[in-house]
Amino acid sequence: MAKKTTIRDIAERLGISSSTVSFVLNNREQGISDDTRRQVIETAILMKYRKVSKINMLEWVRVAYLTPQIQYFNFHTSFFAEVYNHLQRRVSQAKIELSLHEFNPEKSIEVQYLQLQKIRAMDIDVFICNSHKIADYLVQHGLKVILSQGGRNNKCVNVFCDDYTAGRLAAEHAWEMGHRIAGTLFPQNIPILRLEGFVKAFTDAGGSCPVKFRWSPFFDHAEVEEFVRKNSQKKVMPSLFYCFSDNIMFPAIRGFAANGLSIPGDISLIGTDNLYWGRYNQPAFTTVDLCEELFAEKLIEAIRHTLDSKPPYQLAVPVRLIPRETVKKIS
Questions:
Q1: Which of 22, 237, 241, 296 could crosslink 183 through cysteines, CB 3.0-4.6 Å?
Q2: CATH number of this structure's domain 61-162+293-319
Q3: What are the Cα distances from residue 173, in Å, to 56, 119, 169, 268, 323?
Q4: Taking the complete model, does pTM exceed 0.90, yes or no?
């Protein structure tokens, strides 16, 4: 059995102390020169050191994605999960070390400080976050930040979906399919550009979007299902609802079904996100694709831009409508 390379072996090969090698391989530089660090890393790779996969190469960038709600990063369950999955597939090629962390901006100042110190100890080069409050906090502490689909902040790079166009595309499709009265299903405390785009385009075309059918339940699956069940008992209903996300279409379908309303036989639905599971639902979701793969590519471009301390910019990532089975054609 081949002898495993140790830190002492690397130190002897280079003629330096074991502590110096240990500091480099465990990312504790302690004032060590770039030249020495490079020699240690190259020698560790050459000697097949067992922890070589964990070595942080000099040209790699450390990026931390901070979110106040880490549950939205579960497999294929949200826009953020899809974007993060695409990022993970690309970071190695882009020489980026990516990690995901929960950071709650609503906590006390003392807790926020401890959270920040813990992250600072990881020697992060660029932060990505999907919360305006987190972005503000990090910018105030002089850190390099990218705000991802979390509002607008003029002090850092902003990458976001073209939400207004997403709503407009949904409205145009609804109108083309013959719908003339529409409702909306947007959870409370959600940014409303998507909603504004839908209502403006649909009413400009000649349709009606009554305020009483602009529903706003809490963003919880059980709440959405119960809210839709209670409110869909009316005798007169819109023929179509535009939903904030595919995520809430699942409980909405159950809520309508509780009152004997089928999708799309009685009620048509358009979602947003083009989530994985919506493609395989029966019926498959008609949705606005927020182009998460392209979004991830734009985030990687933003990382390089931010790392070079270039001026902030705002970028709206294009979207597209994907017609499937949840919208009925009305003659």
A1: 241
A2: 3.40.50.2300
A3: 49, 45, 6, 11, 8
A4: no
Beta-strand runs (E) in 68-190: 96-102, 126-129, 145-148, 157-161, 182-185
Cis preceding-peptide flag for 318 (omega within 30 of 0): no
Two tokens, residue 135: 């972005």
Give the per-residue pLDDT at 39: 87
Which amino acid belongs to residue 57? Answer: M
pLDDT digits (tens, 9 = 90+) for 144-199: 999 999 888 999 999 999 999 999 999 999 999 999 999 999 998 877 899 999 99
Paired sense of beta strands 182-185 and 145-148, if any: unpaired
Buried/exposed code over 232-268 (b: 16+ C-beta within 10 A; e: otherwise): beeeebbbbbbbbbbbbbbbbbbbbbebebebbeebb
**Token pair for 246:** 């595919």
CATH value of 163-290 in 3.20.20.370, 1.10.1040.10, 3.30.470.20, 3.40.50.2300: 3.40.50.2300
Domain boundaries, the chain: 7-54, 61-162+293-319, 163-290
Per-residue model confidence as pLDDT tens digits over 200-233: 999 999 999 999 999 999 888 999 999 999 999 8
Could you give the CA distance from residue 10 to residue 97 in angstroms, rounded to a whole number? 25
**Residue 113 pLDDT greater than 80, yes or no:** no
Q: Report how far residue 87's alpha carbon sits from residue 96's, in angstroms, rounded to the nearest whole number.
A: 10
DSSP per residue, 4-23: PP-HHHHHHHHTS-HHHHHH
Q: How confident is the model at residue 1 (pLDDT cuts 50, 70, 90)?
A: very low
**Do 61-162+293-319 and 163-290 come out as alike in CATH topology?**
yes
Q: Which amino acid, 273?
A: D
Tokens of 73: 């990063």
Is the CB of residue 305 less than 8 Å from the CB of residue 157?
A: yes
Residue 29 carries which side chain, given as an amino acid letter?
Answer: E
- Give the residue, 108 or 270, on which the prediction is more confident: 270
Bridge partner list, 142: none
